[in-house]
Amino acid sequence: MKNFPIPRIDKDTELHDMLLKYCRLSEGDIWIDKKNNHKVGCIDSNNLNDLKKLFGRKKAALALHDPPYNMVAFQESDADEFVEWSKIWIENSKALMQSNSSLYIWLGADQKNHFQPFAEFILMMKETEFKSRSFITMRNQRGYGTQKNWMSIRQELLYYTLGKPQFNIENVYTDIPKVLKGYYKEVAGKKTENLERSKSRNIRAGNVWIDIQQVFHLLYENVNGCFAQKPLKAIERVIEVSSSKGDLVIDFFAHSGTTLIASEILDRNCFTIDIDPIYCEISIRRLENFRKSGKRGWQNSNPFEYEIKKDIKLKKYLFDKYEIQFDKSK
Ligand SMILES: C[S@@+](CC[C@H](N)C(=O)[O-])C[C@H]1O[C@@H](n2cnc3c(N)ncnc32)[C@H](O)[C@@H]1O
Q1: Residues 58 and 116 reside in one and the same domain
Q2: Atom of ligand 1 minimally distant from the CA of 69
Q3: H/E element holding 13?
Q4: Most exposed residue of 42, 211, 224, 272, measured as fewest CB within 10 angstroms of its CB?
Q5: Domain identity same for 258 and 183
Q6: How many domains does one find in the chain?
Q7: In three state form, how does the secondary structure of 138-157 look?
Q8: What is the Å distance from ligand 1's center to 71 Cα?
Q9: Are 228 and 85 in the same domain?
Q10: What is the pLDDT of residues 167-200, one digit of tens each?
């Protein structure tokens, strides 16, 4: 089995800069997919002019954002600064969304720091035209802080709406089996138990999801080099429920391109951006690789394998620093 991972690109600026020359886009550029008209832009979420160039006249049925917090951009800053910044991309989203549309935002809460920026963020949202609809919790398999605190295993997903958007929950079932008995009802004179009456052995999606594995290196969808990937299954669930085939889905923080791949799989059109050319390139390559091979990530490889093998300097760098050998298959 070949094994050519690369480390987190955000943590190694030298590696980041060495990979830049293999990226198609630089600041302000837009890549247009010839096959299904997806677009990837190297654009700042807070730059409405650039966003408008990317969108033209199109408006989204669904916006699905996973902003950086406690990562590169906000390592040193506080919740207020994050929220001030967020206000702008929320307004930008609104400008590019249909009058009946849905907005989902992944947002962490720092339990060691008064759960920021969660509280500040939801208060900021109160001042916008978006209506709050749900607060979804996705349970991770693995957590942290198991000795001195409740194991932290949650990811938070906020759901807001504009107008009256579609909500196609009818046939969206989880992989969580129905186990609870005891909801009896008389049907045609016979006492029936809820399992007998149900259409499916599994429960429908509520606002707690415990059937989605977080992305880690052994999963096929893993994209080596990235650090904040959301599971495709979660993104697909949101897209299925809050949009229809052909609709435009947008994501301002593409990173590994999860929303782009999920949109491709589900026949939606996707416009996505990232401020960093590296993640724009990774998103485009993930789509291309998916079309070519059917693979949703690079479990044992990475998006730049081809170039690294030919680039003596880069290859040497990865070997000297991380002992990754791009010449050998394991
Ligand atoms: C948490 S990651 C998103 C992960 C993504 N949902 C996935 O599944 O791969 C955040 C991304 O936002 C990008 N980013 C940070 N600031 C940005 C900005 N102002 N505009 C656009 N993208 C930005 C970062 O480069 C990073 O790739």
Answers
A1: yes
A2: 1
A3: helix 13-19
A4: 211
A5: no
A6: 2
A7: EEEEEEECCCCCCCEEEEEE
A8: 10
A9: yes
A10: 999 878 888 888 877 777 888 888 888 777 777 8
